[in-house]
Amino acid sequence: MMISTDNRRRMVTAMLLGPAAAWLVVFLVLPFIAIIVFSFGERAPEGGYQPAFTLAQFANLGARAAAFANTLTLAPIGALACLLVAYPVAYYLAVKADPRHRMLLVSLVVVPFWTSMLVRTYAWMYLLGGRGIPHLLDLVGFSDVRLLNTPGAVLLGIVYGYLPLMILPIYVSLEKLDRRLLEASADLGAHPFSTFFGITVPLSLPGVMTGIALVTILLLGEYLIPQLLGGGKVFFIGNALVDLFLQSRNWPFGSAIAVTLVAVVVMVLLIAMRIAWRVAGTRQVDLM
Q: What sections of the protein cross the membrane (predicted)?
C-alpha cells in the first residue's frame, strides 16, 4: 500500500514533534494538572494534601498579600530598571561598537551566566553587608547605612542578575535596524535626539517588549534574590511557595498561590503580545 506524500509528511512531523510533546505533557502539563487538583483540596492533619473540593484556599489568598504586593511591585520596577540600564548598553553594542570587537563585547555580556547565580548573589551579600559598602561609607562619615535586607538590595540584585536577559533581545532588534533610515533622517536635517526617539526607539520596541516580558515573568517566580538579599524581610511569591510546601506543608494553599501566579504570568504574556502586535501593526517612522 502506497503512502501519499501528505501522509508521509504528517508521519515525519509527528515523529519529530512526538518526543518533545511527550516531554512537555509528562513534565509540564501533568504536574500543573496535579497542582490545580491540589488547589481545590484541604490540608491533611499531618500536612500535605487531603482530597476535597473547596474554594477556601483561593479565598485565603489575602493571607499572603504582602508576598503578592512585593512581587507585583518589585518585579515590574526591576524590569524597568533593567531596561534603563540595558538599552544604552545594547545601543552601544549594536550601533556604536566597532564591528570587529562586537562579538567579543556581546560575549562579555553573557559571561556572568557561566557563574552560579547563588555565588554571584552571595558576593552581593558581602558587598552590601556590614564589611562591604556600608563600612566604606562609615569611613567617610556616613554611619549606620543599611543596604542589605532592604527592597533596594533586592532591586540591585535583580538588575545585576537579569540584565543580560534584557540586553540581548534589545541588541537583536537594534542590530537589524536599517542604517539607511538613520542616514536619511540625518540628510533631512533631523536632530540626533529626534532620530533616536523617532526611528531607533520605535523600531527596537519588539526587542524591548520581549526583554520586559522575559524578565518580568522570571521575576514573578524569583526566590533566591529576595531570600538572600532581602533577608526574609522582602518576601516574593516564590518565597511564600517554598514556605508553604516545605515548611508549613500546606500543599493546597501553596497550590492555589501557584495557580494564581501562573494566571498572572499568562496575563503578562498576553498583555506583552498584544502591545507588541499593536506596535508592529501601527509602527511609523517619524523623520522630523
A: 12-40, 74-93, 105-127, 147-172, 193-219, 253-277
Contacts within 8 Å (CB) and 24+ apart, 7-10? none
12 within domain boundaries: no
Dihedral sign for Cα atoms in the order 154, 160, 161, 167: positive
Report residue 196 as a C-alpha cell. Answer: 533616536
Directed axis angle between helix 151-175 and helix 99-110, to 10°?
150
Number of domains in the chain: 1
Instruction: State the Cα–Cα distance between residues 198 and 275, nearest whole angstrom.
Output: 18
Q: Does residue 65 fall inside a structural domain? A: yes
256 in any annotated domain: yes
Question: What pLDDT digit, counting tens, does each position of 189-223 carry?
Answer: 888 888 888 888 888 888 898 899 899 989 988 99
Q: Which residues of 82-107 are buried (b: 16+ CB within 10 A; e: fewer)?
A: bbeebbebbbebbeeeeeeebeeebe
Residue 79 lies in a domain: yes
Domain of residue 96: give its range. 40-282
* pTM (predicted TM-score): 0.84
The CA–CA distances, whole Å, from 185 to 95, 97, 102 equal: 15, 21, 25
Tell me the pLDDT tens digit for each residue of 73-94: 999 999 999 999 999 999 999 9
Q: So what's the pLDDT on residue 284?
A: 43
List helix spans (H) across the chain.
5-24, 30-39, 56-59, 65-91, 99-110, 117-128, 133-139, 151-175, 179-187, 192-195, 201-220, 224-229, 237-242, 251-282
